[in-house]
Amino acid sequence: QPESMLSDEFQKTTDTLLAGVVRQTPELRKEQLDRMIRSYGPPLTSYLVKTRGLSTDIAEELLQNFLLEKLIEPAPEKNIASQFLQRKETHPEIRFRNYLRCALKNYLYDLFRKQGHATVNLDDVGEQADDPELDGIDELQYDASWANSLLNQACVAVRAECHVKQQSAVWDIFYERLIRPIETGLPAASYEDLCSSGRFES
Predict the structure, then answer these.
(1) 115, 40, 28: which is closest to 70 by C-alpha?
(2) What is the mean pLDDT of residues 123-151?
(3) Does the CA dihedral 188-194-196-199 come out positive or negative?
(4) In angstroms, rounded to a whole number, what is the distance separating the alpha carbons of residues 132 and 144?
(5) pLDDT at 131
(6) CB neighbours (10 Å) of residue 180?
(7) How far is CA 89 from CA 94, 108, 182, in A?
(8) Is 97 helix (H, G, I), strand (E, B) or coil?
């Protein structure tokens, strides 16, 4: 599909998830919260480790506290997901992952305010999510962490579906031909090599 169509579909999914966090019953909201944390937690943790020089343990602890204070504990109509949806009504180009990143930065700056850090105005986050305090390396690391997290989630889902449908061979071929080369940088195994390994009949 054209990239614009894929982006639109992904954005609709994100908006539905955010709406669930804000407007659903407590039971359904918990399910949506869990899904959101699984989706956004890993890239944000990686972002803190790579751009702030934090250990993984400290990054995870800071992120957990941030999510508790800004997403989980506040009333649904006051949490960061609700704030984002309200902002998006007048700025439809805004992206939640960039909004969330800036909110996390503000949270860290509040913790270390004595060092003289300035906060980032969330109202200034637009389509490009320009943040004057982030250089190109930070942006690239954040995008790479985000893409890697999405890839991992997709692979887990595909592998689980293949297992449920008793199509493990489909996953094995997919992994050997597409995923392993991404992970290792080595050429994909040929079909002949896969058959000679004894794992496939033809």
Answers:
(1) 40
(2) 60
(3) positive
(4) 19
(5) 47
(6) 15
(7) 10, 27, 38
(8) helix
